[in-house]
Write a structure and sequence with these properties.
globular, single chain, about 100 residues, alpha+beta, Alpha-Beta Plaits, 5 strands
Length: about 100
């Protein structure tokens, strides 16, 4: 079993905050695919280094799903869809071993 956290931006690259629609769509798609989703939509602080070396602050939402087997091809397609929906060059999707207790 895996716990899969997905880090999503709260703001578009052009600075306006994303409305509710992309998050509702993402929640529906992940619920359909994995049977459930946990979303921490209140923003967490983040920072990253741009290609030019400048550090950019940002706010993220964290979304988690659990899956029985790691489907790398499926996650690659899912990440690509999320990158398109949230207009990002790259999103972070992690797969962590997990146990249900």
């Amino acid at each position: 079993m895996h716990l899969d956290p997905i880090l999503l931006p709260r703001y578009d690259n052009d600075d306006p905050p994303f409305g509710r629609e992309p998050f509702h769509r993402m929640r529906a798609e992940l619920t359909e695919r994995f049977g459930g989703v946990t979303a921490y939509l209140r923003a967490a602080s983040g920072a990253w280094k741009e290609r030019g070396g400048d550090v950019e602050p940002g706010q993220i939402a964290i979304v988690e799903v659990m899956d029985d087997a790691l489907d790398r091809a499926g996650w690659s397609a899912c990440r690509t869809d999320l990158e398109r929906h949230f207009r990002q060059d790259q999103l972070v999707v992690r797969a962590l071993p997990a146990e249900r207790r």
